[in-house]
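One example copied in:
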Amino acid sequence: MTELTISTHVVGTGEDAITYDVRGDLSTGVPLLLFGAPMDASGFQQLAEQFPDRVVVTFDPRGTGRNPVGTGDLTAAQHADDVHRVISALGVGPVDAFGSSGGAVNLLAAAAAHPEDFRAVVAHEPPSAPLLPDADEVLAVVADIKSTYAAQGNGHAMAKFIAFVMFDGQIPDSYLDQPAPDPAMFGMPAEDDGDRTNPLIRNMPSVIEYRPDVEALRALGDRLVLAAGVESGQTMAARGARAIAAAVGIPVTDFPGSHGSFQDQPPMYPGIPVEFGARLREVLAV
């Protein structure tokens, strides 16, 4: 049995440096690109292991992992360009791509701008708000999280964020009238350490307010898959997938589990990477 080789590379310099990993030999077939945002490459290791017969590429999105950090806002357009630069650096033509969460939004933006980069596009639970009926309420919550981060720091902002992404259903007008969650509920300190480099908050509001280019996505035809977890209910990211699929005119594709089920992190975040990988393989028909 041939031992798997993993090589690490960097495309770009300075703040534009993106670190990516290649598992296997790029000459052996169409690469499978796996990524999220702000989740870095380490979060996709278990899913990558489900494809021992394929060359798999993972990368750290801008502002995360092994890349330079900062405090300024990051945009979906920047991330989309980064995806394009990684694919171009591979130098092997179009790839199959799976993007989850913010990575799914960035994948949709990249596919709209550079459709020639992709053989298949699987966007898993993109938290894109503009096509939702409660878009105004969602963006108001995001603005509140952003202002909380600026005023009180990471713990308070992340507590609000977690409560928001766990909310099952449309966001009501009265959502922001409720008491703010205690950071201790989620195991986070209430004290502000002064750090403002959290890449998740830096991605807001741009990624969540990104409006997909429906016509460009429709032009992808059967290369495009919008995916949602069967256990995700009416959480905002799953609703985003369904709304975009409806706008494009395709059915949403069911995946096992929920938002983060491609990785298993017990006891707090149990997942089903084997089942998830099998479903991705089935969807890609490889």
Q: What stands out?
A: Residues 229 and 258 are 4 Å apart (CA to CA).
